[in-house]
Amino acid sequence: MSGYDLALGRTLELAVLLHDDIARSLAAEGLTRSRAHLIRELHRRGPVRQRVLAHALDVSARNITGLVDALVTTGFVTREPHPTDRRVILVTLTEKGARMAEEMDRDRRELARALFSGMRKDRFDAFTEGVDAILARLRETAPKRDPLPVTAGGHGE
Question: For the domain bounded by 32-141, which CATH number is listed?
Fold first, then answer.
């Protein structure tokens, strides 16, 4: 096995371990990764149309409807009328959804501290530079998505 194969194997193992850990913690809250991603996007963007969320999550309109429906049912989000355009419905975090977003942010910071706090600075810097280089190469080969236009109010079209 070459050094490259070994490095890729370790990278894939790291990805699987992180994925499984995150999936377990989300499942304990009744969430999937996609539902959690939607909550994070709403926390970052504020109330938006489903179309904006579909683009942000790179899913179809049908998929975003299912995700939003599930989050409405479990009390994480609501569908609310736009304050100035009655034709528009915005997906909005509930208090429960906002608390969950804050918990996910806190959990992420705690995981980062647990993984990296004991690492020497030179090793940490080398790690982050290496990961940045890998991500840049992956992004170079990934298909490009067109950005969704955003209105002055930030809610997208």
Answer: 1.10.10.10
